[in-house]
């Protein structure tokens, strides 16, 4: 798998991996890179079939999406990294923290869920997109991604609608099928990475109760709910998200130190 990525920031600094959501690409994180590269190397990449990462035939699994990250880290010689993921990116992060804990330092889960049923809805969406292309998802997605004030703004429609239209139909569908089959809940309690969970108060796709459920299950997790913010809270509230991420990835966690 040739995963498209961008690595920026000071040589030798700790690495933060940024993982995008369904229908977006690595430019989802444009507002985070300048802030995070003050302290970290930022490794942002495109999920399978999104941006410039090619799509293999689906269905995919979270295991495959997680292993794409591990292969990328191996190729770059990164033994352990912080990880922030939004929605599908957060699901990928939970899979990694559960199955490859030695590779994940601290974890930030933004507008995501450990169980986003019903599975039939995701299979139906995959079938729709295979039939009609990702263009069919623009009208239903933008009002979930942003609160009403932003959802219709020309620059937002151009940037985020453009990412969605550019996503490969098979890649998008395969990722829907990964969400349909995901099984993250049973092992959430085994996550050892210090975890920050961020929700958007106005997120209709993964509403705050999904974040509360994750934060209640992951030992020691901290929960923050931002408002106004819909599903792409990092784009709607960049300063608040940057502050939370920097605090989480730099804070001294040892009370006795
Ligand atoms: O597109 C949606 O419905 C919202 C979403 C769910 C998983 C993801 O990455 O985005």
UniProtKB/TrEMBL annotation:
Its EC number is 3.1.1.24. Keywords: Hydrolase. GO terms for molecular function: 3-oxoadipate enol-lactonase activity. It comes from the Bacteria. GO terms for biological process: beta-ketoadipate pathway. Residues 14-124, 171-236 form the AB hydrolase-1 domain. It is an enzyme of class 3 (hydrolase). Gene3D superfamilies: alpha/beta hydrolase. InterPro entries: AB_hydrolase_1, AB_hydrolase_fold, AB_hydrolase_sf, PcaD/CatD. Pfam families: Abhydrolase_1. PANTHER family: MONOACYLGLYCEROL LIPASE (PTHR43798). This is 3-oxoadipate enol-lactonase. It comes from Saccharopolyspora phatthalungensis.
